[in-house]
Amino acid sequence: MGRDTLLEQNWSVSKLWEFYEELGEIVYVADIDSHDLIYMNRKAREIYGVNDIKDIKGKKCYEILSGSCAPCACCNHDRLKEGFFLEEVRYIPIIRKKMVLKDTVVEENGRRYRFELAVDLGAWEQQNIGYEANEAMVNEGLRLALAAHTPEQSIDVLLEYLGQSLQSERVYIFEESGRKMVNNTYEWCANDVIPQKENLQDVPFEVVSMWYQRFVKGESVIIKNVENIKEEDAAVYEYLTPQKIRSLVVTPLVNEGEIIGFYGVDNPPEKFLEHITTLLQILGHFLVALIHRRNQMRRLEELCFEDQLTGIGNRHAVHDYFEKIDSGRSVGILYCDVMGLKKMNDSMGHKAGDQLLIRSSECLKKVFKEYELFRVGGDEFLAVCAGIEEQELNRRMEQLKCEMKEHNAPMALGSVWRAESKEQMDKLLTLADDRMYENKRKLYATEYKEMAR
């Protein structure tokens, strides 16, 4: 490889890469932040079917090395350190080889690059036989999934691994929503395959009713040619053809005897169709366990970040939200204090006081439904409106006053608005809080004057 070609790839130390060019092992370099593939040596290009070094220009590492349309779910960029090699043994589905991977970080001109050297162990090459009995393949998929930090990540890793191993175009999970609908909740797509998840929400149960007739018997559904179901299952056909699905295998997800959804693969090679079902059934049990763990974690997060009385965010959720807010957008903050809560608790009991808090929160939900709402104290609420205009904030405050009057939910209000939320949010909260207390003093003074008459 000449010096000019290497400079085109933004690398200055051409002699270093010339050494790797003729190495008998796979070497590649990718930009950690952009995922741009910068370099592949001759061996890597041969293995991955790249004819010329110029063909990788503008390509992402996950497109060529994993055949994916998005960054790899099991990417270990966050574990790499300059000057140290991270060594792993992994099965690489797209080339069907077991490899020893040696990864590190190289910094050059202010950019961070991933350098990987892969050594072929050779013994794990697959020969298209007995995928349903391939214990090594199942174990490797589970190992990768269990190494992820959360159940969500484990599911993504496992779907990616299945898609690559089965040479499929798409792998997905559908879950029942409890409204006689099914939703596509997870998907992995091969490179150049258009994701479909957003288009497959609230799919009527009737569409897949014929599949469920097989699912209740513990059977999978295999469609070798979608055109063959055009007459007998027109509802499914109408959903599949726009997605360019030619064949598929789907398997039920069963939890304690109840079907909670299904998952499957689209357009696998015909030679794999008959061998996929057992593999999916085995891994299906593991996916169900991950979904159960995910649901438990979501519930714990709700308990940690949700006010149990009103169903809106609590004080912990405020701090979590402020860490994520876009400082370049406008922001409006409304601080609210429920009037007369202590008096109601003392005179009518805490149940009546709780009802007052619920009515107050419902007023806020109705007026600020698309914004973030929090209960930050026993009688204090907060609305944080990212991206709102000042005039719109004022209009909604007037609407809130009408709702408060109609539902007997008096609150003192204090607001602040900024064109950009670059100030520290604590300062804005303090300002809104001060204005709320000023409004509260005026309301009590008015009430005192009316009682004095």
Keywords:
alpha+beta; single chain; 6-stranded antiparallel beta sheet; Beta-Lactamase; Alpha-Beta Plaits; 453 residues; 3 domains
Can you characterise this structure?
The protein is α+β, with helices and mostly antiparallel strands and 453 residues long. Mean pLDDT is 86; it is low at 1-15 and 123-133. The strands form three sheets. It has a six-stranded antiparallel beta sheet. It is built from 14 helices and 15 strands. β3 (86-92) and β4 (97-108) form a beta hairpin. It has three domains: 3-120, PAS domain (Beta-Lactamase, 2-Layer Sandwich); 131-303, Beta-Lactamase, CATH 3.30.450.40; 315-452, Alpha-Beta Plaits (2-Layer Sandwich), CATH 3.30.70.270. It is 40% helix and 23% strand. The protein is globular and about 85 Å long.
Topology record:
Elements lengths: L2 H6 L5 H8 L4 E6 L5 E4 L1 H7 L12 H5 L20 E7 L4 E12 L2 E10 L14 H12 L4 H15 L4 E7 L4 E9 L13 E2 L4 H7 L5 E3 L10 H7 L7 E8 L2 E9 L6 H33 L9 H10 L6 E8 L2 H8 L1 H18 L4 E4 L4 E7 L3 H17 L4 E8 L6 H28 L1
Helix pairs in contact: 5-6, 6-9, 11-12, 12-13
Q: Biggest β-sheet, characterized?
A: 6 strands, antiparallel
Strand line-up of the largest beta sheet = 8-7-6-11-10-9
Structural class: alpha+beta
Report the CATH topology name of the largest domain: Beta-Lactamase
Mean pLDDT: 86
Uncertain spans: 1-15, 123-133
β-strand percent reads: 15-25%
Number of helical elements: 14
Question: What gyration radius follows from the Cα positions, in whole Å?
Answer: 29 Å
Question: Any idea what the CATH superfamily of the largest domain is called?
Answer: GAF domain
How far is the first residue's CA from the last residue's CA?
A: 95 Å
